[in-house]
């Protein structure tokens, strides 16, 4: 874990939950698991504030707690991945919206807003919100049954999971209440949809007290499942870019079949028989134009240099494995190559590819094979090495320790994992800079932005009252033209920085995924 | 070039040798810079113009969602702020609105179920602290008691000595008895104090947070336990 990651995390926390939570989070990041009192003493915050901050972190799942060594004091641990997922909230919602529709999106949004909650309360909340957003329908209870169905399907697809609940202290066995709940959940219950009493839900919606039958059962968002979908999207999109849409459709089907028999996060999937793939395709669309060319398409995907799938057997028309690890290695290579093209030009990228291809290569060979003038090739190679894209390996001809450089080969090579880590750090840094700059821009022009917002709200309320156009015009003119110009300029800048953050987040996701596969 | 040959005691000739091996002519502009004495610039010049960012409808939707989220969290109780304590008593016009927004926010609103949290995080519960305070206060109270004992005893002994010189033979037996009793009592008290101290040491050895426990004294229990102890006084 790098220093930069810590900095980014504290900025993210500050943006969402304010300075105090961020201070507590940073402290936990720097020192690892820590009890409440120590956090308070090292952050120099009042104990009440620290308590509140920890409550917030725990509520949103950004921190966890466990009994410390003595077993009597709870120690808190920060979850950096979860903090990073705060940045991905919009992407999660977009995914849900495209897969399950608006109702499910509202439901997940409510979950993300509160961290964890019981199903009944959330459904009621979502129903009220849906009713508010669509003013035409005045009956919120109409949404209840759809929302419940969506909830059940989200749980079935594992986008939501059950929160571990505290096990009661067993006094008979001599256990003493420690004040630290022991949170557990059994595997069978994790994705078991709840049975909800519709009548009680309707009563709850009308503000009455009712028992919907899920007291003490809480649900939270399963981020891993979302990441799994993001991963599939990346792979399918890559196939579509490299071959064509039909191939990507086949690949999508292969992924679906993979989940039937394989754990989603393994490096290489279990074999998928060809016949099964053909049957599924036929079932889906008997007139599919891909069907006659299925063989060829599979062959093309298989023979592609990125190695997304491999043929492992011939029984049943052929058996195919999906190489998760290999595909992400290929994607990472491509990503790094693109970065080099953009930063150092295509000639540098050619040298990089050459070193990748030859594994270990001397400087002179690079000049010859890359067909770049000697001087330029040298400059570019050393530049890449300087920026840590290439590594240098010395190989001595003799074993003598004081052998001069004349007796040594200097071989260039690439350590992909190291480069990926470097890129990841670079992205963290860029993200940190972008967020910092955005904060700076907004703070610098806070007065202007607030003024604009105020004028906007006044104009809106007047419009609602049916004020004449002249009056509205007058309100709009309260901001001088240079102010408007400045405002637009600032907004454009902020917008651009936010876009950059979105894109950076994608690179970070790719690198993290590659590294996590490499660690397995 | 930086970083290569770090930690090796090579002189300039060694560097030149390496440069030759790597194909750099000595004296040319490509030779490595010997030492850099200043940090890299804070805003390095941009060498190539970055590719313009593409933002489709999807991207705009994502940005809007992000703004919504950040806005929501800002207004929610989970956005913890320092309550500014004003040193002066001047009434401000803006106070009316600030207080209204601040008073609505408490973290307790967002917490769904306290049974999922360690009890120490709850606002009004502090079980461990109270326990420790008891121990601490007994220890503090014991020390003055002990000194009092000694002075009392000395005084008493003095008195007895005076009495004893008057009528030595008669009271000798009684006196020794009384002294024994005194001793016994004192010993008991001493051993009590020792026990308490030992217990305290045990407590502290667990996590070594003694300083913090004492440090965060909100003063609520002040004089609660100590009062009793002081009034009791030594018993003879």
From TrEMBL, chain A:
Gene Ontology MF annotations: single-stranded DNA binding
Family: Belongs to the eukaryotic RPC3/POLR3C RNA polymerase subunit family.
Function: DNA-dependent RNA polymerase catalyzes the transcription of DNA into RNA using the four ribonucleoside triphosphates as substrates. Specific core component of RNA polymerase III which synthesizes small RNAs, such as 5S rRNA and tRNAs.
GO biological process, one term: DNA-templated transcription
Alphabetical UniProt keywords: DNA-directed RNA polymerase, Nucleus, Transcription
Keyword Transcription (UniProt): yes
Broad class of where this protein is predominantly found: nucleus
GO cellular component, one term: RNA polymerase III complex
Record keyword Nucleus present: yes
One Pfam family matching this protein: RPC3_helical
Protein name: DNA-directed RNA polymerase III subunit RPC3
Oligomer status and interactors: Component of the RNA polymerase III (Pol III) complex consisting of 17 subunits.
Location in the cell: Nucleus
Gene: LOC113207090
Stretches assigned to the DNA-directed RNA polymerase III subunit RPC3 winged-helix domain: 336-414
Residues of the RNA polymerase III subunit RPC82-related helix-turn-helix domain: 7-66
Gene3D superfamilies with a match to the protein in the record: 6.10.140.1450, Winged helix-like DNA-binding domain superfamily/Winged helix DNA-binding domain
UniProtKB/TrEMBL annotation, chain B:
Gene of this entry: LOC113218039
Taxonomic placement: Eukaryota, Metazoa, Ecdysozoa, Arthropoda, Hexapoda
Region of interest (Disordered), residue spans: 1-42, 133-236
An annotated GO BP: transcription by RNA polymerase III
GO cellular component, one term: RNA polymerase III complex
Family (UniProt): Belongs to the eukaryotic RPC7 RNA polymerase subunit family.
Protein location: Nucleus
Name of the protein in question: DNA-directed RNA polymerase III subunit RPC7-like
Biased composition, class Acidic residues, residue ranges: 191-209, 218-236
Amino acid composition bias (Low complexity), ranges on this chain: 28-37
């Amino acid at each position: 874990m790098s220093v930069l990651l810590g900095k980014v995390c504290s900025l993210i926390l500050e943006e969402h939950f304010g300075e105090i939570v961020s201070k507590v989070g940073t402290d936990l990041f720097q020192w690892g698991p820590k009890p409440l009192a120590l956090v308070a003493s090292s952050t120099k915050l009042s104990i009440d504030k620290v308590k509140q901050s920890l409550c917030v972190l725990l509520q949103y799942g950004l921190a966890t707690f466990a009994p410390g060594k003595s077993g009597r004091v709870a120690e808190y641990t920060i979850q950096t991945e979860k903090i990073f997922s705060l940045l991905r909230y919009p992407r999660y919602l977009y995914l849900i919206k495209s897969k399950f529709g608006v109702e499910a999106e509202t439901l997940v949004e409510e979950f993300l807003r509160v961290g964890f909650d019981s199903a009944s309360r959330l459904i009621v909340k979502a129903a009220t919100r849906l009713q508010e957003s669509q003013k035409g329908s005045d009956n919120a209870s109409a949404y209840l049954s759809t929302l419940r169905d969506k909830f059940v399907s989200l749980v079935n697809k594992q986008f939501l999971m059950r929160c571990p609940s505290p096990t009661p202290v067993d006094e008979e066995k001599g256990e003493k209440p420690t004040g630290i709940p022991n949170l557990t959940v059994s595997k069978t219950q994790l994705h078991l949809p709840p049975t909800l009493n519709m009548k009680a839900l309707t009563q709850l919606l009308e503000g009455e007290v009712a028992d919907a039958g899920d007291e003490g059962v809480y649900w939270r968002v399963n981020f891993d499942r979302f990441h799994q979908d993001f991963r599939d999207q990346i792979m399918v999109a890559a196939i579509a870019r490299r071959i064509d849409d039909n191939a990507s459709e086949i690949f999508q089907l292969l992924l679906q079949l993979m989940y039937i028999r394989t754990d989603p996060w393994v490096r290489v999937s279990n074999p998928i028989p060809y016949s099964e793939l053909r049957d599924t395709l036929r079932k889906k669309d008997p007139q599919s134009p891909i069907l006659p060319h299925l063989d060829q398409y599979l062959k093309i995907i298989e023979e592609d240099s990125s190695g997304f799938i491999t043929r492992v057997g011939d029984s049943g028309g052929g058996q195919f494995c999906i190489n998760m690890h290999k595909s992400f290695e290929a994607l990472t290579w491509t990503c790094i190559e693109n970065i080099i093209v953009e930063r150092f030009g295509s000639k540098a990228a050619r040298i990089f590819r050459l070193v990748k291809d030859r594994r270990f290569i001397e400087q002179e060979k690079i000049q010859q094979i890359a067909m770049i003038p000697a001087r330029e090739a040298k400059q570019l190679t050393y530049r890449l090495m300087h920026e840590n894209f290439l590594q240098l390996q010395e190989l001595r001809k003799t074993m003598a320790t004081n052998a001069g450089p004349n007796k040594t080969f200097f071989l260039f090579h690439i350590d992909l994992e190291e480069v990926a880590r470097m890129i990841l750090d670079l992205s963290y840094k860029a993200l940190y800079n972008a967020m910092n700059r955005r904060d700076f821009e907004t703070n610098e022009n806070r007065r202007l932005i607030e003024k604009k917002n105020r004028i906007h709200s006044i104009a809106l309320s007047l419009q609602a009252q049916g004020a004449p156009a002249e009056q509205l015009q007058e309100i709009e003119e309260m901001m001088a033209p240079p102010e408007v110009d400045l405002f637009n300029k600032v907004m454009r800048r902020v917008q651009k920085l936010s876009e950059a953050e979105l894109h950076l987040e994608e690179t970070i996701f790719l690198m993290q995924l590659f590294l996590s596969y490499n660690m397995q | 070039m930086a970083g290569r040959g770090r930690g090796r005691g090579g002189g300039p000739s060694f560097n030149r040798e390496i440069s030759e091996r790597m194909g750099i002519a000595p004296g040319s502009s490509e030779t490595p810079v010997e030492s850099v004495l200043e940090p890299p610039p804070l805003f390095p010049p941009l060498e190539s113009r970055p590719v313009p960012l593409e933002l489709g409808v999807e991207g705009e939707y994502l940005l809007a969602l992000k703004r919504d989220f950040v806005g929501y969290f800002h207004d929610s109780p989970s956005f913890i702020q320092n309550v500014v304590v004003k040193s002066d008593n001047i009434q401000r016009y803006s106070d009316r609105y600030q207080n209204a927004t601040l008073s609505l926010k408490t973290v307790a609103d967002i917490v769904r179920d306290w049974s999922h949290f360690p009890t120490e995080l709850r606002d009004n519960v502090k079980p461990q602290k109270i326990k420790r305070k008891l121990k601490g206060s007994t220890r503090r109270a014991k020390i003055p008691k002990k000194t009092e004992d000694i002075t009392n005893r000395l005084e008493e002994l003095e008195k007895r000595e005076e009495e004893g010189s008057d009528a030595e033979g008669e009271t000798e037996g009684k006196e020794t008895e009384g002294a024994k009793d005194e001793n016994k009592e004192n010993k008991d008290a001493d051993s009590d104090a020792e026990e308490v101290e030992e217990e305290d040491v045990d407590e502290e050895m667990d996590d070594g947070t003694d300083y913090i426990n004492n440090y965060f004294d909100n003063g609520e229990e002040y004089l609660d336990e100590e009062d009793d102890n002081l009034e009791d006084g030594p018993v003879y």
